């Protein structure tokens, strides 16, 4: 891959896990003209992933964000329940499977055994160690974090997370691909929570503690940050959109790596135990039903 200075958009991309994030990642790469292969855990999960990509494209077309018909873009996307069918010549593989080391290591190693030497491998993890995930690979130099944000098509940022082993040529290429998607990259050294999750989760946890202590209600806390500090979205509304379960898992990881300031508040644990996971379950800190 060294020496090739002409590349802008990857011609073909593999996405592992076609959930909320994976479907969005597949959508944005297919929209730039790439051929995309999405690998899901089985055929019924593949059907659901295909529908997510299709719905995402329909929504983008409704908003006037697609230069082509949605069906034309969708034609470039193949969704399969079998990772072994990943084409070997993809330029990039991004995994977006659940935030668990063992699942991520498993799918990344399986992908590496299929793809060619020039393929870049990336993880969309929000908080796990890129060095630890990369250590399971034969060639960790081709691996880094590509941390997309939710919803992927509308978000402006991709955090590019480099481990000590990541080769500079790989980082440079990925930064170029991010810009080709019309997004901005920030390069962050591999460390717990990177830049975004570390700061975003800390703010969210403090807002939950303030709610617990009765300092103010959810809307007042969010308004304070939205109007007082010009945050586009308050920390509690943002936690509802990300998912309380997702936030709790990240907080637990940061608690174990960075210390007490990331200890998850009891209210967060109680809400997750009660199934109040935010917008996706109809209720979190707000009522979304
Ligand atoms: N939700 C967010 O706001 C957000 C933001 C940034 C990053 N992330 C990260 O993105 C990743 C995915 O999050 P999500 O919210 O899209 O989760 P999700 O649960 O919506 O999607 C995960 C998908 O992976 C699939 N999957 C599970 N095991 C698999 C396997 N072995 N092979 C192939 N597919 C498999 C599931 O069927 C599911 O469709 C996580 O690492 C998360 O931390 C999430």
Automatic annotation (TrEMBL):
Source taxon at top rank: Bacteria
Domain (3-hydroxyacyl-CoA dehydrogenase C-terminal): residue spans on this chain: 193-288
Keyword Disulfide bond recorded: no
Pathway in which the depicted protein is active: Lipid metabolism; butanoate metabolism
InterPro entries linked to this entry: 3-OHacyl-CoA_DH (IPR022694), 3-OHacyl-CoA_DH_NAD-bd (IPR006176), 3HC_DH_C (IPR006108), 6-PGluconate_DH-like_C_sf (IPR008927), 6PGD_dom2 (IPR013328), NAD(P)-bd_dom_sf (IPR036291)
Segments forming domain 3-hydroxyacyl-CoA dehydrogenase NAD binding: 13-190
GO biological process annotation, one example: fatty acid metabolic process
GO molecular function: NAD+ binding; oxidoreductase activity, acting on the CH-OH group of donors, NAD or NADP as acceptor
Keywords: Oxidoreductase
Residue(s) at site: Important for catalytic activity: 147
Pfam families referenced in this protein's UniProt entry, alphabetically: 3HCDH (PF00725), 3HCDH_N (PF02737)
Family: Belongs to the 3-hydroxyacyl-CoA dehydrogenase family.
Name of this chain's protein: 3-hydroxyacyl-CoA dehydrogenase
Organism: Saccharomonospora glauca K62
